[in-house]
Amino acid sequence: MRIKKLASVAALASFGVLAGCSESNTSSFVAGDVDGGSANEATGIVASNTSYSAAKTKLSRCSHAVVNQWEMDTTAVEQKAVTVSADSAFEGENFAVEANVAVDAADAYTVASAGIGGTGSAWALQVENGEVVFKWRDSQEGEWRVLKADKDVQKGEWNDVRLEHVDSLSILIVNGEIAGAYKHSTKLGNLDGDFTIGFDRTEGDGSNNSGRIAVVRVEYTFDIYVIPVESSSSEVLPEDPKSTLGDRPWIAAWEFNDAANVGRDFSGNGHNAVIGEGAVATVDGVAKFDGKSGFSVPLTPDLKINDFVVESRFKPANSSRFNNILVAEPPGRYGDGWIFRLGYGKLYFNIRDAANGTGWSEFEIASVPMNEWTVARVERLGDEISFFINDSLVKTVNFKGDVSDLGYNWGLGYDAMNQALHQRYFDGEIDYIRFGENLAETAKVDPVKEDVEEQKPEEQKSEDPKPEEQKPVEEVVDTTAVVEPVFEVEGDWLAAWEFNDAAKVGRDFSGNGHTALIGEGSVVAIDGIAAFNGKSGFYVDLAKDININEFVLETRVKPTQFGTMQNIIVAEPPGRGVDGWQLRIDEGVLTVHLRDSDKDGDNWNIFPGKKMTLGEWSTVRVERSNDSLKVFQDGVLTVSVAYEGDLTQMRYDWGIGYDAMKQAFHNRYFIGEMDYIRFGKFEGFSDVNDASVTEVKPLAAWEFNEPTYVGLDRMANNSTKALVGTPVVEDTTVKLDGNSGLKVYLSPTFIRNTFAVEARVKPTKFGGMQNIIVAEPPGRLGDGWIIRLDDGVLDAYFRDENTDGSTWNSLYGKKLALDEWTTIRVERSADSIKVFQDGELTVKAAAKGDVSQLGYDIGIGYDAMNQAIHDRFFVGEIDYIRYFEK
């Protein structure tokens, strides 16, 4: 591959800014006001006015999508400039321009420019004597400003140069290092001229021989943590006196001053809070919480800090056991976190460093009155935490630990993570909640509003506020979870949920105390059988004795309705990066999922067994050793595979009959009956001949059975929500109207040379290029493969750039019939390519080259890369597409 290619949404990863990007040794500082007050008037040169750390944080919040890409002829004696309209080159005001450029001479060389010759703003990305330079002007009449990167390019060598512009912040990245960052007072996206590559329009000189470009890409940049709202801005409204945030540079400020967008962040940093439950209204800049509502705040890197300040002005109407104000709390007994809350009329602060154990350190701050305003503030700095009530220091305590390794969204006014004990809503009014970094030099305290200035806390400031030692507080134990030792089940099981106690359905009959508690809905047990209604389930607290790598699992279940994901019992984390396992039913097929995050990363290893029968009892046994897995269904071995890994790095509670962790896709309830579930230590495999277990499982399988999640991959690792148009799932098929498709982001699953693809399709209209599934680069270069219809004829295309250059190798099958189903299978082995239609071999050819060096996303039903000729939509229905290792 001659030119480096990147997946569209992962362009930043190539520069390292999402995963530990190095920074220049040149000091990063705020040089002047945002309006460019630090500019040298004689030359227009400005210095960076935003720290590289802040720029890196901003980039870590962003994702990207390729809009356009140009691959230049590096062999030409003189490269020709490319000029297109700025309107066609960009999508929106936030963008990124990336170029692979080489400069031989000391002259100025314009890599790319936009808006020059138009009536609005303009900019140019240049290299001058080895220096990367970004120039811009706010209007046609405005003066040029110049930001020079503090890292030079290597002359005569290929260099990666990237300009990011997001939310009025311009960032220069040179060979993977942030080398300049400037916050503008005006936007640069108002362009109406041309976008030009490789031609210095600023000088009016047609010579461009001093440099050379291999590839230029334009991307649309978007902040993945900003929730779109109807209000026009997330910036502070200066005309509103209630928006004044004082001298402290808050990271987030929920002021509740925008009735149209109650959760708006007035700091300008985009941490908008979104309703998680219920509804919250605001009246005269005060949010009214009704005791059953709350906001969720998406977690972002700038919120994950160890030294911080939390401040709020609130008026509680009632107080119960837990009344959350602002919490960064994980859903269970594991993980860093902190909690700012009320409890029975007292203000508390809980904090936990997971490295110190599962217990919370709880500090009682002071009693607060009901139906009166109170201003409370928590300041964490180093090993000390200070608590203030109405601007008076009431207590300072010691706490050692780093609590910045947060992993979940924050809750504002409620428990965003749905803990087991979920009565944690705030009941009353809140004027504001603010969060910021606590610097060593404490900022000036905001003045307390007049109606609370004379209010005194019930617990007065002590004359000698000596730090108190932290007192670890164990989590509250629900006494209903305590089980008397009762041995009513045969076998040495670690846990045995027999469902034989109608009064305590989730009782553990092993005597080890692993009682399952209701997490959602209700489960009724009659005659020792538990009935699951499709909206209920239990959770089981994770404990050391069941957190084991080698185990045996037995259950007897009777499904009465099939669905997309139906959990029997799962030790599944709520997302990525943690070990886990699952036993569930997917569209009637029993499946086991295993993941060792150290070995597998975020990917699940999925092992399907046989399809079950509705309304019939089935006994399932799972045997898991350190290096193997066997699954038996009604005594018949259905899965026997090798799998090495350590699954003991689990951190979350288990779920029975549902998804206890509430994944993004939460339709995971079991529907039917369970007789028992038993879990114990592995003591050797059952003596069964497994030679008959030969079924090959797919690496990815889009079955199109779930209307609410069109792009769901049954094999879990390549699901997608990146839809184009309106693909609709009806009757377990996806209907494509000729303007719709799905984009599957490139993953290691598809980086292989030998594979097979199966699909069942029903075209309803023929056209020139109708993609079924393609791994196709956006141009004449790059490896790839295509399976599509050309005027109804099934075609398969393969290309190895090193062997074939820009030429595709084509295989033509037979023409399909309109409005009729056809099963397709394309196989690529090391030495041959075969195409089957309804089981008949229709074309065969020798395979050559290696097509595994993919660089772009996968398209289903359309051209995910937006080729020059973009009429490539499939029209009709697709029952399924499955991708296999060959």
TrEMBL record:
Chain coiled-coil ranges: none
Signal peptide: 1-19
Stretch list, region Disordered: 444-475
Keywords, ordered alphabetically: Lipoprotein, Signal
Basic and acidic residues bias locations: 444-474
UniProt keyword annotation of Signal present: yes
Pfam family, one: Laminin_G_3
UniProt entry tagged with the keyword Disulfide bond: no
SUPFAM superfamilies the record matches: Concanavalin A-like lectins/glucanases
The protein's name: Putative lipoprotein
Source organism per UniProt: Fibrobacter succinogenes (strain ATCC 19169 / S85)
